[in-house]
């Protein structure tokens, strides 16, 4: 009987360890919308991560406060390269955006910069 209890305890421990997995923030964050739009998706990402520096009041260009400013930054200022760069090399400076947010901005650009 004691042997059965030990075997069951070991099996339970192995099952518990196997069930535990480590996930990154990107793996558990919300999936990218099939058709991200500026208003529904991109604006929130930019406002939360970029506007505190890239605004007229702060003075850091390119300004990223409006749809047109963000679209122009993607088209002519290399915004997609900046957000895709490794942490410490691109933008935001403090920490790289989660991959799901980078994917959303890339897909928004690839789909033609939908606003609504």
Automatic annotation (TrEMBL):
Keywords: Signal. It comes from Flavobacterium album. GO terms for molecular function: electron transfer activity; heme binding. It comes from the Bacteria. Residues 1-18 form the signal peptide. This is Cytochrome c domain-containing protein. InterPro entries: Cyt_c-like_dom_sf (IPR036909). The keyword Signal applies.
């Amino acid at each position: 009987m004691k042997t059965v209890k030990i075997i069951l305890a070991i099996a339970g421990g192995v099952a518990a360890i196997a069930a535990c997995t480590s996930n990154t923030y990107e793996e558990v964050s919300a999936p990218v919308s099939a058709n991200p739009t500026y208003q529904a998706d991109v604006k929130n990402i930019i406002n939360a991560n970029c506007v505190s520096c890239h605004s007229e009041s702060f003075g850091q260009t390119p300004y990223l406060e409006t749809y047109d400013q963000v679209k122009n930054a993607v088209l002519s200022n290399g915004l997609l390269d900046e957000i895709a760069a490794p942490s410490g090399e691109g933008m935001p400076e403090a920490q790289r955006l989660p991959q799901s947010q980078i994917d959303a901005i890339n897909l928004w650009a690839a789909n033609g910069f939908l606003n609504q």
